[in-house]
Amino acid sequence: MTNSDRSPAGGVERPTVVGPDGEKALVVIPTFNERENLPLIIGRLQTTLSAIHVLVVDDSSPDGTGEVADELAAGDAAGRIHVLHRADKDGLGKAYLAGFDWGLTRDYEVVIEMDADGSHAPEQLPALLATINDGADLVIGSRYVRGGELVNWPRRREILSRGANTYARVALGAGIHDITAGYRAYRRAVLEKISLDTVESAGYCFQIDLAWRSIQAGFDVREVPITFTEREIGQSKMSGGVMSEAFVKVFRWGVQSRLAQLGVRR
């Protein structure tokens, strides 16, 4: 890959943001009780993109995940595995925000969200990064666009997920099919602009919140199809409270957006 990509439409050269082996990109992986999954997912990442950097954000996992992460970092001669220990378990959103803050104080150009449980295939990350290099500001790995797939997911979870995405798309008027998805890549400019210090959402709502802020700020948000595979080890951490938070906040954001379009001050 050269230092720039040429747009087939207009012949305009775009600077390459991420190198072919993942240079200038950071994958943030929040963990809580993922000691068995973590070495597997990091190994797959390094096989797929040899120069990618990884930040494990561990919320004091009682199963020793933090210690496993430290061992992986200590054994990484290239210094591409990093660990951030947090004292409390206060939600996926807060863990990601801590990871974003860590990444933005360094020279990464792209920051990636990825689950530790294997549901997000590292082998599909090059497709997200290629779309960033094509000019996108936020790329979402989508289960619900053409080419996206679900593997071994309970029917009840799928119905809830599809319903949540349809509700968010209609309530917000956003043309994103999988706005709750947690496999995504951000250019640093997006994270620097969307006021991360004001984000209080968690879980599903966190993902909707950041995508909606990105759209409202005028960034180029795209989806690429992925295959989402249900975890084989451990248990899902999704809760009813997280779903309720998403329902209420999305409704409020949708109302605020429509009032703003009508010129009504809030």
UniProtKB/TrEMBL annotation:
This is dolichyl-phosphate beta-D-mannosyltransferase. Its EC number is 2.4.1.83. Belongs to the glycosyltransferase 2 family. One of its GO terms (cellular component) is membrane. GO terms for molecular function: dolichyl-phosphate beta-D-mannosyltransferase activity. Coiled coil: none annotated. Keywords: Glycosyltransferase, Transferase. Residues 27-194 form the Glycosyltransferase 2-like domain. The keyword Glycosyltransferase applies. The keyword Transferase applies. InterPro entries: DPM1-like, Glyco_trans_2-like, Nucleotide-diphossugar_trans. GO terms for biological process: glycolipid biosynthetic process. It catalyses: a di-trans,poly-cis-dolichyl phosphate + GDP-alpha-D-mannose = a di-trans,poly-cis-dolichyl beta-D-mannosyl phosphate + GDP. It comes from Gordonia oryzae.
